[in-house]
Amino acid sequence: MEITDLTPAERRVREAFPLGEGVDFRESEDEDPARGASWGPERTLRAEVLRALLLDGPVRGDRIAGLKVWGARITGVLHLMYGTVGHPVRLRACHFDETPNLYGARIPALVLSDSVLPGLTAGTLHVDGVLRVTCCRIAGPVRLAGAKLSGAFFVNGARLGTPGEVPEEPVLQLNHAEVGTDVWAVGLVAHGEVRLKGTTVGGQVNLDDALLQNPGGEALDAETLSVGTDLRGMRLRAHGRFNLRGARIPHQLNLAYARLSHPGRQALRASSSVVGELWLREAAPIEGSVNLRRAQVDLLHVPPEVWPRQVRIDGLGYRVLTPHLPAEQRLPLLEREADGYLPHPYEQLTTAYRTVGDDAAARTVQLAKLRRHRSTLPPYARLWGYLQDAAVGYGFRPMRAAGWLLLLLCTGTLAFALHHPPALKPSEAPAFNPLFYTLDLLLPIIDFGQEGAFAPRDGYQWLSYLLIAAGWVLATTIAAGVTRSLNRQ
Length: 489
Fold this sequence. Notes:
Shape: rod-shaped
Radius of gyration: 37 Å
Largest sheet: 13 strands, parallel
Strand content: 15-25%
Distance between the termini: 84 Å
Strand order of the largest sheet: 1-3-5-8-12-16-20-24-27-29-31-33-35
Protein backbone atom coordinates (compact mmCIF):
# COMPACT_ATOMS: atom_id res chain seq x y z
CA MET A 1 0.00 0.00 0.00
CA GLU A 2 1.43 3.37 -1.04
CA ILE A 3 1.48 6.25 1.38
CA THR A 4 -0.60 8.28 -1.11
CA ASP A 5 -3.39 5.78 -0.65
CA LEU A 6 -4.25 7.16 2.82
CA THR A 7 -7.61 8.74 3.51
CA PRO A 8 -7.77 12.10 5.31
CA ALA A 9 -8.59 10.35 8.59
CA GLU A 10 -5.66 7.96 8.19
CA ARG A 11 -3.36 10.84 7.27
CA ARG A 12 -4.26 12.60 10.54
CA VAL A 13 -3.31 9.51 12.48
CA ARG A 14 -0.07 9.06 10.54
CA GLU A 15 0.97 12.64 11.21
CA ALA A 16 0.22 12.36 14.92
CA PHE A 17 1.94 8.98 15.32
CA PRO A 18 5.63 10.08 15.38
CA LEU A 19 4.75 12.90 17.80
CA GLY A 20 2.88 10.57 20.19
CA GLU A 21 -0.12 12.86 19.95
CA GLY A 22 -3.73 11.79 20.04
CA VAL A 23 -6.43 12.02 17.39
CA ASP A 24 -9.99 12.31 18.66
CA PHE A 25 -12.70 11.58 16.09
CA ARG A 26 -15.58 11.77 18.57
CA GLU A 27 -18.33 14.27 18.15
CA SER A 28 -19.03 14.13 21.89
CA GLU A 29 -17.46 12.30 24.82
CA ASP A 30 -20.65 10.40 25.60
CA GLU A 31 -21.34 8.96 22.17
CA ASP A 32 -21.83 5.20 21.92
CA PRO A 33 -19.15 3.28 19.96
CA ALA A 34 -21.69 0.47 19.49
CA ARG A 35 -23.05 2.61 16.65
CA GLY A 36 -19.64 2.70 15.00
CA ALA A 37 -20.73 0.59 12.04
CA SER A 38 -22.56 3.66 10.75
CA TRP A 39 -19.60 6.00 11.07
CA GLY A 40 -18.45 7.41 7.74
CA PRO A 41 -15.02 7.57 6.05
CA GLU A 42 -14.14 10.76 7.95
CA ARG A 43 -13.52 8.60 11.05
CA THR A 44 -12.76 5.20 9.53
CA LEU A 45 -9.28 3.64 9.73
CA ARG A 46 -8.17 0.53 7.92
CA ALA A 47 -6.48 -2.05 10.12
CA GLU A 48 -3.64 -2.52 7.61
CA VAL A 49 -2.76 1.17 7.91
CA LEU A 50 -2.50 0.88 11.69
CA ARG A 51 -0.44 -2.28 11.34
CA ALA A 52 2.01 -0.53 9.01
CA LEU A 53 2.36 2.36 11.46
CA LEU A 54 2.96 0.12 14.42
CA LEU A 55 5.50 -2.13 12.75
CA ASP A 56 7.32 0.37 10.54
CA GLY A 57 5.90 3.83 11.13
CA PRO A 58 7.84 7.12 11.05
CA VAL A 59 9.57 8.24 14.24
CA ARG A 60 11.32 11.38 15.43
CA GLY A 61 14.37 11.26 17.60
CA ASP A 62 13.14 13.97 19.95
CA ARG A 63 9.65 12.48 20.49
CA ILE A 64 8.20 9.18 21.68
CA ALA A 65 5.99 7.75 18.97
CA GLY A 66 2.71 6.07 19.78
CA LEU A 67 -0.73 5.26 18.42
CA LYS A 68 -3.37 7.23 20.31
CA VAL A 69 -6.89 7.36 18.80
CA TRP A 70 -10.41 8.00 20.13
CA GLY A 71 -13.70 7.23 18.44
CA ALA A 72 -12.57 5.61 15.19
CA ARG A 73 -14.12 2.79 13.22
CA ILE A 74 -11.47 0.20 12.40
CA THR A 75 -12.18 -2.02 9.42
CA GLY A 76 -10.42 -5.25 8.57
CA VAL A 77 -8.33 -7.40 10.92
CA LEU A 78 -5.66 -5.66 12.96
CA HIS A 79 -3.13 -8.43 12.34
CA LEU A 80 -0.07 -8.23 14.60
CA MET A 81 0.45 -11.96 15.09
CA TYR A 82 4.02 -12.58 16.37
CA GLY A 83 4.84 -8.96 15.61
CA THR A 84 7.06 -6.78 17.77
CA VAL A 85 5.58 -3.35 18.34
CA GLY A 86 7.90 -0.75 19.80
CA HIS A 87 5.22 1.82 20.58
CA PRO A 88 2.25 1.94 22.99
CA VAL A 89 -1.14 1.29 21.43
CA ARG A 90 -4.16 3.26 22.66
CA LEU A 91 -7.42 2.80 20.75
CA ARG A 92 -10.12 4.14 23.04
CA ALA A 93 -13.87 4.25 22.34
CA CYS A 94 -13.28 2.65 18.93
CA HIS A 95 -15.47 0.29 16.98
CA PHE A 96 -13.76 -2.79 15.53
CA ASP A 97 -15.52 -4.48 12.64
CA GLU A 98 -13.41 -7.63 13.01
CA THR A 99 -11.52 -9.40 15.78
CA PRO A 100 -7.93 -8.15 16.22
CA ASN A 101 -5.27 -10.85 16.06
CA LEU A 102 -2.41 -10.13 18.47
CA TYR A 103 -1.40 -13.73 19.07
CA GLY A 104 2.21 -13.92 20.25
CA ALA A 105 2.76 -10.18 19.72
CA ARG A 106 5.02 -8.06 21.90
CA ILE A 107 3.70 -4.61 22.83
CA PRO A 108 4.82 -2.00 25.42
CA ALA A 109 1.22 -1.17 26.41
CA LEU A 110 -2.23 -1.91 25.01
CA VAL A 111 -5.30 0.19 25.83
CA LEU A 112 -8.69 -0.59 24.27
CA SER A 113 -10.87 1.08 26.90
CA ASP A 114 -14.51 1.85 26.07
CA SER A 115 -14.24 0.13 22.68
CA VAL A 116 -16.62 -2.32 21.01
CA LEU A 117 -15.10 -5.49 19.55
CA PRO A 118 -16.42 -8.77 18.15
CA GLY A 119 -13.62 -10.56 20.04
CA LEU A 120 -9.92 -10.40 20.87
CA THR A 121 -7.32 -13.01 19.96
CA ALA A 122 -4.15 -12.39 21.97
CA GLY A 123 -2.90 -15.71 23.32
CA THR A 124 0.74 -15.65 24.54
CA LEU A 125 0.70 -11.87 24.13
CA HIS A 126 3.61 -10.06 25.85
CA VAL A 127 2.83 -6.62 27.27
CA ASP A 128 5.59 -4.73 29.03
CA GLY A 129 3.10 -2.40 30.72
CA VAL A 130 -0.65 -2.64 31.27
CA LEU A 131 -3.43 -4.17 29.24
CA ARG A 132 -6.72 -2.29 29.49
CA VAL A 133 -10.08 -3.39 28.19
CA THR A 134 -11.90 -1.23 30.74
CA CYS A 135 -15.60 -0.75 29.93
CA CYS A 136 -15.21 -2.56 26.60
CA ARG A 137 -18.10 -4.47 25.07
CA ILE A 138 -16.79 -7.65 23.53
CA ALA A 139 -19.32 -10.08 22.10
CA GLY A 140 -16.92 -12.92 21.34
CA PRO A 141 -14.17 -14.58 23.37
CA VAL A 142 -11.23 -12.67 24.79
CA ARG A 143 -8.35 -15.11 24.26
CA LEU A 144 -5.38 -14.29 26.50
CA ALA A 145 -4.24 -17.79 27.42
CA GLY A 146 -0.54 -17.85 28.25
CA ALA A 147 -0.22 -14.07 28.08
CA LYS A 148 2.57 -12.39 30.03
CA LEU A 149 1.74 -8.95 31.37
CA SER A 150 4.41 -7.07 33.29
CA GLY A 151 1.81 -4.65 34.64
CA ALA A 152 -1.88 -5.04 35.46
CA PHE A 153 -4.84 -6.33 33.49
CA PHE A 154 -7.80 -3.97 33.68
CA VAL A 155 -11.16 -5.43 32.66
CA ASN A 156 -13.27 -3.41 35.09
CA GLY A 157 -16.70 -2.42 33.86
CA ALA A 158 -16.33 -4.54 30.72
CA ARG A 159 -19.24 -6.45 29.16
CA LEU A 160 -18.20 -9.82 27.77
CA GLY A 161 -20.37 -12.19 25.77
CA THR A 162 -23.95 -11.80 24.68
CA PRO A 163 -26.90 -12.02 27.10
CA GLY A 164 -29.11 -15.02 26.48
CA GLU A 165 -26.55 -16.86 24.33
CA VAL A 166 -24.53 -19.90 25.39
CA PRO A 167 -20.95 -19.34 24.19
CA GLU A 168 -18.99 -22.24 22.76
CA GLU A 169 -15.87 -21.25 24.71
CA PRO A 170 -15.05 -19.10 27.76
CA VAL A 171 -15.70 -15.42 27.20
CA LEU A 172 -12.51 -14.51 29.08
CA GLN A 173 -9.55 -16.85 28.74
CA LEU A 174 -6.70 -15.80 31.00
CA ASN A 175 -5.64 -19.33 31.84
CA HIS A 176 -1.93 -20.04 32.40
CA ALA A 177 -1.20 -16.33 32.08
CA GLU A 178 1.25 -14.35 34.18
CA VAL A 179 0.16 -10.94 35.47
CA GLY A 180 2.83 -8.89 37.20
CA THR A 181 0.53 -6.87 39.45
CA ASP A 182 -3.28 -7.02 39.57
CA VAL A 183 -6.28 -8.32 37.68
CA TRP A 184 -8.75 -5.49 38.13
CA ALA A 185 -12.26 -6.68 37.22
CA VAL A 186 -14.50 -4.50 39.39
CA GLY A 187 -18.00 -4.41 37.91
CA LEU A 188 -17.18 -6.92 35.17
CA VAL A 189 -20.23 -8.50 33.49
CA ALA A 190 -19.50 -11.83 31.82
CA HIS A 191 -22.16 -13.85 30.00
CA GLY A 192 -20.15 -17.06 29.90
CA GLU A 193 -17.20 -18.66 31.65
CA VAL A 194 -14.33 -16.62 33.03
CA ARG A 195 -11.23 -18.83 33.02
CA LEU A 196 -8.19 -18.11 35.21
CA LYS A 197 -7.03 -21.70 35.44
CA GLY A 198 -3.35 -21.96 36.35
CA THR A 199 -2.95 -18.18 36.26
CA THR A 200 -0.29 -16.44 38.34
CA VAL A 201 -1.06 -12.94 39.60
CA GLY A 202 1.56 -10.96 41.49
CA GLY A 203 -0.98 -8.83 43.36
CA GLN A 204 -4.71 -9.30 43.74
CA VAL A 205 -7.70 -10.36 41.67
CA ASN A 206 -10.53 -7.93 42.28
CA LEU A 207 -14.04 -9.03 41.27
CA ASP A 208 -15.97 -6.63 43.48
CA ASP A 209 -19.49 -5.97 42.13
CA ALA A 210 -18.91 -8.36 39.21
CA LEU A 211 -21.67 -10.38 37.57
CA LEU A 212 -20.60 -13.79 36.25
CA GLN A 213 -23.40 -15.50 34.35
CA ASN A 214 -22.98 -19.09 33.22
CA PRO A 215 -25.88 -21.17 34.63
CA GLY A 216 -25.19 -24.87 34.41
CA GLY A 217 -21.46 -24.33 33.84
CA GLU A 218 -18.41 -22.63 35.28
CA ALA A 219 -19.00 -19.00 36.22
CA LEU A 220 -15.34 -18.78 37.26
CA ASP A 221 -12.78 -21.52 36.61
CA ALA A 222 -9.75 -20.55 38.67
CA GLU A 223 -8.28 -23.96 39.46
CA THR A 224 -4.70 -23.71 40.76
CA LEU A 225 -4.87 -19.91 40.56
CA SER A 226 -2.03 -18.30 42.50
CA VAL A 227 -2.25 -14.72 43.71
CA GLY A 228 0.20 -12.63 45.67
CA THR A 229 -2.33 -11.11 48.07
CA ASP A 230 -6.13 -11.32 47.83
CA LEU A 231 -9.04 -12.49 45.73
CA ARG A 232 -11.86 -10.05 46.30
CA GLY A 233 -15.46 -10.61 45.31
CA MET A 234 -17.48 -8.31 47.53
CA ARG A 235 -21.06 -8.05 46.26
CA LEU A 236 -20.14 -10.52 43.51
CA ARG A 237 -23.01 -12.35 41.82
CA ALA A 238 -22.07 -15.69 40.31
CA HIS A 239 -24.62 -17.88 38.52
CA GLY A 240 -22.71 -21.09 37.86
CA ARG A 241 -19.88 -22.81 39.68
CA PHE A 242 -17.28 -20.64 41.40
CA ASN A 243 -14.30 -22.97 41.10
CA LEU A 244 -11.13 -22.33 43.14
CA ARG A 245 -9.86 -25.89 43.44
CA GLY A 246 -6.18 -25.92 44.41
CA ALA A 247 -5.94 -22.11 44.48
CA ARG A 248 -3.29 -20.33 46.56
CA ILE A 249 -4.55 -17.12 48.17
CA PRO A 250 -2.22 -16.10 51.03
CA HIS A 251 -4.33 -13.23 52.39
CA GLN A 252 -8.09 -12.87 51.92
CA LEU A 253 -10.69 -14.62 49.83
CA ASN A 254 -13.30 -11.98 50.49
CA LEU A 255 -16.81 -12.84 49.30
CA ALA A 256 -18.67 -10.57 51.72
CA TYR A 257 -22.18 -9.66 50.55
CA ALA A 258 -21.74 -12.02 47.58
CA ARG A 259 -24.42 -14.22 46.03
CA LEU A 260 -23.32 -17.63 44.76
CA SER A 261 -25.98 -19.57 42.90
CA HIS A 262 -25.89 -22.90 41.12
CA PRO A 263 -29.09 -24.69 42.23
CA GLY A 264 -28.90 -28.46 42.33
CA ARG A 265 -25.17 -28.39 41.57
CA GLN A 266 -21.92 -27.24 43.09
CA ALA A 267 -21.92 -23.49 43.72
CA LEU A 268 -18.52 -23.11 45.43
CA ARG A 269 -15.56 -25.42 45.04
CA ALA A 270 -12.34 -24.61 46.88
CA SER A 271 -11.11 -28.11 47.66
CA SER A 272 -7.36 -28.54 48.24
CA SER A 273 -6.93 -24.76 48.26
CA VAL A 274 -4.77 -22.78 50.69
CA VAL A 275 -6.36 -19.54 51.88
CA GLY A 276 -5.34 -17.09 54.57
CA GLU A 277 -8.86 -15.86 55.40
CA LEU A 278 -12.17 -16.90 53.86
CA TRP A 279 -14.89 -14.27 54.32
CA LEU A 280 -18.56 -14.76 53.50
CA ARG A 281 -19.77 -12.09 55.90
CA GLU A 282 -23.40 -11.07 55.25
CA ALA A 283 -23.41 -13.08 52.03
CA ALA A 284 -26.69 -14.46 50.71
CA PRO A 285 -27.41 -18.13 51.50
CA ILE A 286 -25.51 -20.20 48.95
CA GLU A 287 -27.76 -21.90 46.39
CA GLY A 288 -26.09 -25.19 45.56
CA SER A 289 -23.53 -27.31 47.35
CA VAL A 290 -20.11 -26.31 48.70
CA ASN A 291 -16.91 -28.36 48.44
CA LEU A 292 -14.07 -27.36 50.80
CA ARG A 293 -12.47 -30.78 51.18
CA ARG A 294 -8.80 -30.76 52.18
CA ALA A 295 -8.74 -26.96 52.04
CA GLN A 296 -6.54 -25.15 54.56
CA VAL A 297 -7.80 -21.85 55.95
CA ASP A 298 -6.32 -19.83 58.79
CA LEU A 299 -9.50 -17.86 59.55
CA LEU A 300 -12.99 -18.90 58.45
CA HIS A 301 -15.71 -16.25 58.67
CA VAL A 302 -18.92 -17.88 57.42
CA PRO A 303 -22.16 -17.29 59.37
CA PRO A 304 -24.24 -20.48 59.80
CA GLU A 305 -27.11 -19.15 57.69
CA VAL A 306 -24.85 -18.81 54.62
CA TRP A 307 -24.06 -22.53 54.35
CA PRO A 308 -26.24 -24.54 51.91
CA ARG A 309 -28.05 -27.79 52.64
CA GLN A 310 -25.20 -29.95 51.38
CA VAL A 311 -21.48 -29.51 51.98
CA ARG A 312 -18.29 -31.48 51.58
CA ILE A 313 -15.90 -30.46 54.35
CA ASP A 314 -13.97 -33.63 55.18
CA GLY A 315 -10.32 -32.66 55.65
CA LEU A 316 -11.09 -28.93 55.88
CA GLY A 317 -8.62 -27.37 58.29
CA TYR A 318 -8.99 -24.00 59.98
CA ARG A 319 -7.49 -22.36 63.04
CA VAL A 320 -10.05 -19.70 63.95
CA LEU A 321 -13.82 -19.53 63.40
CA THR A 322 -15.54 -16.14 63.40
CA PRO A 323 -17.92 -14.91 64.57
CA HIS A 324 -17.62 -16.85 67.83
CA LEU A 325 -20.91 -18.68 68.28
CA PRO A 326 -22.22 -21.42 70.60
CA ALA A 327 -21.49 -24.93 69.43
CA GLU A 328 -25.21 -25.59 68.96
CA GLN A 329 -25.24 -23.08 66.07
CA ARG A 330 -22.24 -24.64 64.34
CA LEU A 331 -23.18 -28.31 64.67
CA PRO A 332 -25.97 -28.39 62.04
CA LEU A 333 -23.35 -27.74 59.34
CA LEU A 334 -21.56 -30.99 60.23
CA GLU A 335 -24.79 -32.91 59.71
CA ARG A 336 -25.00 -31.64 56.10
CA GLU A 337 -21.92 -33.57 54.97
CA ALA A 338 -22.81 -35.27 51.70
CA ASP A 339 -21.14 -38.54 52.72
CA GLY A 340 -22.90 -38.75 56.06
CA TYR A 341 -21.06 -39.07 59.35
CA LEU A 342 -17.33 -38.32 59.15
CA PRO A 343 -15.22 -37.84 62.31
CA HIS A 344 -12.77 -35.22 61.03
CA PRO A 345 -15.18 -32.24 60.83
CA TYR A 346 -16.12 -32.79 64.49
CA GLU A 347 -12.48 -33.04 65.55
CA GLN A 348 -11.64 -29.86 63.62
CA LEU A 349 -14.50 -27.92 65.20
CA THR A 350 -13.44 -29.17 68.62
CA THR A 351 -9.90 -27.96 67.99
CA ALA A 352 -11.14 -24.54 66.90
CA TYR A 353 -13.12 -24.10 70.12
CA ARG A 354 -10.19 -25.21 72.23
CA THR A 355 -7.93 -22.77 70.39
CA VAL A 356 -10.03 -19.88 71.68
CA GLY A 357 -10.37 -21.44 75.15
CA ASP A 358 -14.04 -22.48 74.93
CA ASP A 359 -13.75 -25.94 76.47
CA ALA A 360 -17.48 -26.21 77.16
CA ALA A 361 -18.26 -25.81 73.46
CA ALA A 362 -15.52 -28.32 72.62
CA ARG A 363 -17.15 -30.88 74.91
CA THR A 364 -20.53 -30.21 73.31
CA VAL A 365 -19.05 -30.94 69.87
CA GLN A 366 -17.48 -34.18 71.08
CA LEU A 367 -20.75 -35.30 72.59
CA ALA A 368 -22.55 -34.54 69.31
CA LYS A 369 -19.90 -36.52 67.46
CA LEU A 370 -20.44 -39.62 69.61
CA ARG A 371 -24.21 -39.38 69.24
CA ARG A 372 -23.88 -39.08 65.47
CA HIS A 373 -21.45 -42.00 65.39
CA ARG A 374 -23.92 -44.06 67.42
CA SER A 375 -26.38 -44.07 64.53
CA THR A 376 -23.82 -45.95 62.40
CA LEU A 377 -23.36 -48.80 64.91
CA PRO A 378 -25.13 -52.19 65.13
CA PRO A 379 -28.14 -52.43 67.51
CA TYR A 380 -26.26 -53.86 70.51
CA ALA A 381 -23.60 -51.17 70.29
CA ARG A 382 -26.26 -48.46 69.92
CA LEU A 383 -27.91 -49.75 73.12
CA TRP A 384 -24.63 -49.47 75.01
CA GLY A 385 -24.19 -46.00 73.57
CA TYR A 386 -27.63 -44.92 74.77
CA LEU A 387 -26.74 -46.14 78.26
CA GLN A 388 -23.49 -44.15 78.26
CA ASP A 389 -25.27 -41.11 76.94
CA ALA A 390 -28.12 -41.28 79.45
CA ALA A 391 -25.80 -41.98 82.37
CA VAL A 392 -22.97 -39.50 81.91
CA GLY A 393 -23.27 -38.05 78.40
CA TYR A 394 -20.37 -40.24 77.23
CA GLY A 395 -18.26 -38.75 80.03
CA PHE A 396 -18.83 -35.16 78.93
CA ARG A 397 -21.78 -34.69 81.33
CA PRO A 398 -20.44 -36.22 84.61
CA MET A 399 -23.05 -34.51 86.79
CA ARG A 400 -25.67 -36.82 85.31
CA ALA A 401 -24.08 -39.69 87.28
CA ALA A 402 -24.68 -37.87 90.55
CA GLY A 403 -28.31 -37.39 89.58
CA TRP A 404 -28.85 -41.03 88.76
CA LEU A 405 -27.11 -42.16 91.95
CA LEU A 406 -29.15 -39.78 94.05
CA LEU A 407 -32.41 -40.94 92.45
CA LEU A 408 -31.61 -44.62 92.97
CA LEU A 409 -30.35 -43.98 96.49
CA CYS A 410 -33.51 -42.15 97.48
CA THR A 411 -35.70 -44.84 95.93
CA GLY A 412 -33.93 -47.68 97.69
CA THR A 413 -33.65 -45.89 101.03
CA LEU A 414 -37.36 -45.08 101.08
CA ALA A 415 -38.41 -48.57 100.00
CA PHE A 416 -36.28 -50.41 102.54
CA ALA A 417 -37.08 -47.94 105.30
CA LEU A 418 -40.75 -48.85 104.91
CA HIS A 419 -40.08 -52.60 104.67
CA HIS A 420 -36.98 -53.80 106.49
CA PRO A 421 -35.58 -56.99 104.94
CA PRO A 422 -35.18 -59.81 107.46
CA ALA A 423 -31.71 -60.65 108.78
CA LEU A 424 -30.04 -63.82 107.65
CA LYS A 425 -28.62 -64.39 111.16
CA PRO A 426 -30.57 -62.26 113.60
CA SER A 427 -28.10 -62.83 116.43
CA GLU A 428 -25.13 -61.67 114.38
CA ALA A 429 -26.69 -59.02 112.11
CA PRO A 430 -25.90 -55.33 112.70
CA ALA A 431 -28.65 -52.78 113.13
CA PHE A 432 -30.41 -52.25 109.81
CA ASN A 433 -29.75 -48.92 108.10
CA PRO A 434 -31.76 -48.41 104.88
CA LEU A 435 -29.36 -45.72 103.57
CA PHE A 436 -26.20 -47.77 103.91
CA TYR A 437 -27.98 -50.92 102.81
CA THR A 438 -28.92 -49.17 99.55
CA LEU A 439 -25.33 -47.87 99.16
CA ASP A 440 -24.07 -51.44 99.58
CA LEU A 441 -26.32 -52.56 96.74
CA LEU A 442 -25.45 -49.64 94.42
CA LEU A 443 -21.69 -49.38 94.84
CA PRO A 444 -19.95 -52.62 93.90
CA ILE A 445 -16.58 -51.74 95.43
CA ILE A 446 -17.88 -50.52 98.81
CA ASP A 447 -19.03 -52.83 101.65
CA PHE A 448 -20.76 -51.41 104.70
CA GLY A 449 -21.67 -54.90 105.93
CA GLN A 450 -25.38 -54.43 105.28
CA GLU A 451 -25.91 -56.30 102.01
CA GLY A 452 -24.61 -59.66 103.31
CA ALA A 453 -26.56 -59.46 106.56
CA PHE A 454 -30.07 -58.97 105.18
CA ALA A 455 -32.11 -60.74 102.52
CA PRO A 456 -35.14 -58.96 101.08
CA ARG A 457 -38.07 -61.01 99.78
CA ASP A 458 -40.68 -60.91 97.01
CA GLY A 459 -40.74 -57.58 95.14
CA TYR A 460 -38.06 -56.06 97.33
CA GLN A 461 -35.71 -58.81 96.32
CA TRP A 462 -36.24 -57.78 92.69
CA LEU A 463 -35.64 -54.16 93.69
CA SER A 464 -32.30 -55.15 95.23
CA TYR A 465 -31.35 -56.97 92.02
CA LEU A 466 -32.25 -53.86 90.02
CA LEU A 467 -30.12 -51.65 92.27
CA ILE A 468 -27.16 -54.03 91.99
CA ALA A 469 -27.42 -54.19 88.18
CA ALA A 470 -27.91 -50.45 87.87
CA GLY A 471 -24.92 -49.87 90.11
CA TRP A 472 -22.67 -52.04 87.96
CA VAL A 473 -23.88 -50.48 84.70
CA LEU A 474 -23.60 -46.98 86.10
CA ALA A 475 -20.12 -47.57 87.50
CA THR A 476 -18.88 -49.15 84.27
CA THR A 477 -20.41 -46.40 82.15
CA ILE A 478 -18.95 -43.67 84.35
CA ALA A 479 -15.50 -45.25 84.16
CA ALA A 480 -15.65 -45.64 80.37
CA GLY A 481 -17.01 -42.17 79.79
CA VAL A 482 -14.56 -40.40 82.08
CA THR A 483 -11.67 -42.33 80.57
CA ARG A 484 -12.77 -41.28 77.07
CA SER A 485 -13.12 -37.66 78.18
CA LEU A 486 -9.64 -37.65 79.71
CA ASN A 487 -8.20 -39.19 76.56
CA ARG A 488 -9.82 -36.45 74.42
CA GLN A 489 -8.27 -33.83 76.67
